[in-house]
Amino acid sequence: MQYYVIIDTNVLVSSFLKEGSNPHKVVQRVICEEYIPILNNEILDEYLDVLGRNKFKLDKNDVDNMLANLLGKAIYVDKKPTSEVFIDTTDVVFMKHSKKLESYMMYI
After folding, report:
1. Contact, 70 vs 37, CB < 8 A?
2. How far apart are CA 14 and CA 22, in angstroms?
């Protein structure tokens, strides 16, 4: 069975900050092709913005390599408007796309 995942940006940040953590395991499963990431330009822009913030002190080469890995395995979806109301508006970009491919949003 294939799992399609939309990875919240916080999961990516956490995967860098603590090797062996659940977020790190999620990213490793994408790299090993157990999970197929779903992306679009809006999600990718958020990844680039957040992972590039100085406060996280992430190595640019590590970030670039991980993003290249995600990009190479991702399914791209178009952004479509939704009439749904979301309580946590910061996750709207992720939630509305998870419904398109009947994928699961992973909160870790």
Report:
1. yes
2. 9
SS (H, E, C) the chain: CCEEEECCHHHHHHHHHCCCCHHHHHHHHHHCCCEEEEECHHHHHHHHHHHCCHHHCCCHHHHHHHHHHHHHHCEECCCCCCCCCCCCHHHHHHHHHHCCCCCEECCC
- For the chain, what is the domain count? 1
Q: Is the pTM of this model over 0.85?
A: no
pLDDT digits (tens, 9 = 90+) for 23-65: 999 999 999 999 999 999 999 999 999 999 999 999 999 999 9
CATH number of the domain encompassing residue 14: 3.40.50
Q: Which domain holds residue 66?
A: 3-105
